[in-house]
Specification:
Elements (H helix, E strand, L loop, with lengths): L12 H13 L3 H14 L4 H10 L5 H26 L1
Helix pairs in contact: 2-4, 3-4
Length: 88
């Protein structure tokens, strides 16, 4: 099954299962961040919103959610630190 990265407002069972499958496939930080960038560019809501929703609904494990969220947060923090160094 091919996942369209643009799931938009259609958050049905098949699209959510496909997205969870995509999350499980990516294990390296580089693959996670690449997928996040592509996903966020094609959807109204960012990937972390969907990950949190999956976690709330118990659609994914805490381990998988934490791996993705920690990777995303660390990446955002490093971008902020790099910008702060440019400013100072």
């Amino acid at each position: 099954m091919t996942l369209s990265l643009n799931i938009g407002n259609l958050f049905n069972d098949s699209s959510s299962h496909a997205l969870v499958d995509e999350l499980r496939k990516r294990t390296s930080e580089e693959a996670i961040l690449d997928f996040e960038e592509k996903f966020n560019s094609k959807n109204e809501k960012n990937l972390h919103v969907y990950i949190c929703r999956f976690l709330k609904n118990r659609s994914i494990s805490r381990g998988l959610a934490s791996k993705w969220l920690i990777t995303i947060i660390k990446n955002k923090e490093s971008k902020i630190e790099a910008l702060q160094k440019l400013i100072n």
